[in-house]
Amino acid sequence: MLSLKALKTYNYFYFSLLSLFISFLPVYLSARGISAQEIGGIMSLGALIGIVSQPFWAYQSDKHRTVKKLLLLTLGLSVGIGTAMFAVHGATVLFVLVSLMYFFYLPSDPLKESFNFRLSERIGVSFGSVRM
Fold first, then answer.
1. Lower CB count within 10 Å: N or C terminus of the chain?
2. Alpha-carbon Rg of the chain, whole angstroms?
3. 121-124, long-range: CB < 8 A, 24+ apart
């Protein structure tokens, strides 16, 4: 069973990596020679993909009655796709990989919050204390 300290540590690193990814993705894309207009399109695509992917993964979580396995799946695929992003050279392939990254990474936040809530109830602490 996860301890409260482990859960808080996980949340800290999750949000740290999220802020790094969102903040430095435009810088990375710019260094790869992607135009400012294309970067804007890629960044705004994240919101559109999130509208579809978050309900999709929430439905899967409810259907299969598991948050932890889907959280591990989405994060694992995000890491794999994120690693592949560094190996590709074409703008089209990079665009597809970033889209897939959004599809798997963006739903991990609501899944993580659900996981946090369930564990905080099981441990017997307030949900807010887990996130601090």
1. N
2. 16
3. 122/1, 123/4, 123/7
Rounded Cα distance, 1 and 4, in Å: 10
Residue 101 CB partners (closer than 8 Å, separation 6+): 78, 81, 82, 85
100: domain range? Answer: 4-123
- Distances, alpha carbon 113 to alpha carbons 40, 94, 117, in Å: 28, 29, 6
Q: Domain for residue 130, yes or no?
A: no
Any domain includes 128 = no
Compare 1 and 123 and report the one with higher pLDDT: 123
**How many structural domains comprise the chain?**
1
Distance CA 15, CA 2 (A): 18
pLDDT, mean over the chain: 88
Which pLDDT tens digit goes with each residue over 87-119? Answer: 888 788 888 998 999 999 999 989 999 988 988
pTM assigned to the model: 0.83
Residue 64 DSSP SS3: helix
